[in-house]
Amino acid sequence: MRSSIATVSISGDFEEKLAAIAAAGFDGIEIFENDFLAFDGSPREAGQLVRDHRLEIMLFQPFRDFEGMPEPQRDRAFERAERKFDLMGELGAELMLVCSNVSSLSLGGIDRAAADFAELGERAAARGIRIGYEALAWGRHVSDHRDAWEIVRRADHPNIGLILDSFHTLARDLDPDSIRSIPGDRIFFVQLADAPRIDMDLLYWSRHFRNMPGEGDLDVTGFMQAVAATGYDGVVSLEIFNDQFRGGSPKTISVDGHRSLLYLMDRVKRREPGIAISVPAMPDRVPVSGIEFIEFAADEREGDELGNLLRALGFRRAGRHIAKDVELWRQGGINIVINTEREGFAHSSYLVHGTSVCDLGLKVEDAAATVERARTLGASLFDQPVGPGELKIPAIRGVGGGIMHFIDDRSDLGRVWEIEFESMDDPEASTDAGLIAVDHIAQTMNYEEMLTWLLFYTAIFRTHKTPMVDVVDPAGLVRSQVIENAEGSLRITLNGAENRKTLAGRFITESFGSAVQHLAFKTGNIFATAAQLAKNGFTPLAISPNYYDDLEARFALDADLLDRLKAANILYDRDEHGEYFQLYGPNYGEGFFFEIVERRGGYRGYGAANAQFRIAAQKRALETNPAVRR
After folding, report:
1. Engineered SS bond to 510: which of 3, 452, 517, 590, CB 3.0-4.6 Å?
2. Torsion over CA of 557, 558, 560 and 562, rounded to 10 degrees?
3. Parallel, antiparallel, or unpaired: how do β-strands 464-465 and 476-484 relate?
4. Tell me: the pLDDT tens digits for 367-424?
């Protein structure tokens, strides 16, 4: 199958769109008429520009309000079609999309529509043009692909075929398996779009909230399985109407689109192995067993400051790199790396973002397979010189500019700490505070970038997304969505900031786009941990007493438990599965912080109801002590 994307899906002028689409790896475009009309050149020049970018015009669209019209509108519709045929000839396009009629003048009737298409097919054939008919979900008489197929079938013309669009089928909850009975050679084109489930007018939903396959809630995979079962082997195209995409980077949106198509077709191929689908071979989505390490970039002074904070959290300095200014800090199963090298990627990251997380190491089943899948899906590989005695650890660049390294037990990668680090005693070490693992990593980005991050993680790793929630900041909303695996060994919260006044927005601005805003560590006993942290000199984030008065009213907690929570500044949440306890550290820099959590029972959430109180406390702390390290 060949890939395509509608020019309406991305921002920019016509030439900018073509450059981004070609660079992302698409085979062609759907040329949306308005994009051509805004182009300052002739149709022939527009067509040549497409070909100069080594793309094809796969589809010209849309042609509206054609079938079932009374006279004189019927004659006028055919005249309009002939003019579009002239334009298509100049452009070098041979397939036109006709969408089902929405005009109040249309008469309806399958036989009447079929007769109109039979005549249009004759006219199109004389020009070497084919016509694809698409059922709009809000069509006046035809809003179901089954009715559109019946019209095409009765028209019985080789130049008249069906165009299928996943949104128009799935938004109306039509069974995509009904597609399986349609002959594949009568399907002329397939358009794909996902969308979040929203109860609203179909036209408005379609025009503003479509997104890439895998980014929404519709069963685009099931739809494409049904299409593939027909034997269809033509173009698969993205038609995405989305306000954020229209204002975003053409390059980023194009890369996301191509990645989404590869990911989708890989899923279809794995679900229906008997169906012949042309998609690049790649390993399956990769299982992740946990966070192997988190690396900070810093200079010497700030590295010492960070080390002191880690000591207060109960970490000990456990090793020094054999050749670099890199230290290993450990507690339980948590490995923190502080890199103060004066060259290399970490140093470059420090110069841009200040002290921040620059690298995440994931423990995977197969590191080589992880990199191969990521590469096939368009991720950039990362490589830098390796010195004597060092391992070449597979890595890619993440979507936020950071690095992701992959460790497995299939080779010496599993012994990286023994091979690359010399163990050392830490005479200043504090007492272990009972932290046992990384519970989750919180990454912050501009809201319009969230879907890019979501697609990146779900396409490469064996993870799923949870429903989006609104986090209330006194200065506005932050959208939050979690990527996690079934075992809970990988949890990443994505927090999309919509303005600079929120704590998340301030962090992005002040750290120049650094992604990781906070790290949450897991403990088996939050009260014992809090007591030890106090002995270590750790100062928790001070929570307003009013929070605990409200907590008592909401959950009717035992007075003793409530007193213990209040005394230790621990926040509490509960659902039908279990309980959740949260303890926050002070602000570090312009909004980075550490969190300690305990999960009891089957609690799988992240304490979203507590976020507004935590944010208010953090903002108070910033106002009280605005001095930050730099």
Report:
1. 590
2. 10
3. antiparallel
4. 999 999 999 999 999 998 888 889 999 999 998 889 999 999 998 999 999 999 999 9
Question: Is the sign of the CA dihedral 356, 359, 364, 370 positive or negative?
Answer: positive
Fill in the amino acid letter for 199: D
Work out the widest C-alpha separation in the chain, in whole angstroms: 93
- The domains located in the chain, with CATH, are 2-271 (3.20.20.150), 288-423 (3.10.180.10), 435-624 (3.10.180.10)
Q: Are 598 and 526 in contact (CB under 8 A)?
A: yes
CB contact set of 433 (below 8 Å; sequence gap of 6+): 313, 314, 331, 523, 529, 532, 533, 536, 538, 596
**CA angle 397-401-407, nearest 5°?**
35
Taking each helix axis from N to C terminus, what angle separates 503-510 and 611-624, rounded to the nearest 10 degrees?
50
Tokens of 393: 């650890």
Residue (of 497, 492, 491) closest to 449 by Cα position: 497
- What lies within 8 Å, CB to CB, of 584 at 6+ separation is 540, 541, 569, 571, 593, 594, 595, 596, 614, 617, 618
pLDDT at 286 over 70: yes
Going 491 to 496 to 501 to 506, the CA torsion angle's sign is positive
Residue closest to 583 by CA, chosen among 329, 314, 358, 330:
314
Tokens of 208: 């503003």
Give the pLDDT of residue 183: 97
- The per-residue pLDDT for range 564-582, each reduced to its tens digit, is 999 999 999 999 999 999 9
Residues 59, 3: Cα–Cα separation, whole Å: 12
Q: Are 573 and 580 in contact (CB under 8 A)?
A: yes
- CB-based contact 336:421 (threshold 8 Å): no
Query: If residue 11 lies in a helix (H) or strand (E), which one and from where to where?
Result: none
DSSP codes, 468-533:
PEEEEETTEEEEEEEEE-TTSS-EEEEEEE-STTSHHHHHHHHTTS--EEEEEEEES-HHHHHHHH
Angstrom distance (rounded) from CA 167 to CA 211: 10
* Peptide linkage before 62 cis (omega within 30 of 0): yes
Burial per residue of 405-421, b for 16 or more beta-carbon CB atoms within 10 angstroms, e otherwise: bbbbeeeebeebbeebb
Cis check: omega of the bond before 72, within 30 degrees of 0: yes
| C-alpha distances out from residue 569 to 96, 231, 547, 564, Å | 64, 62, 10, 9
Which H/E stretch holds residue 577? none
Distance CA 81, CA 193 (A): 27
**What's the 3-state SS for 114-181?**
HHHHHHHHHHHHHCCCEEEEECCCCCCCCCCHHHHHHHHHHHCCCCEEEEEEHHHHHCCCCCHHHHHH
Going by the DSSP 8-state scheme, the letter that residue 551 receives in this structure is: H
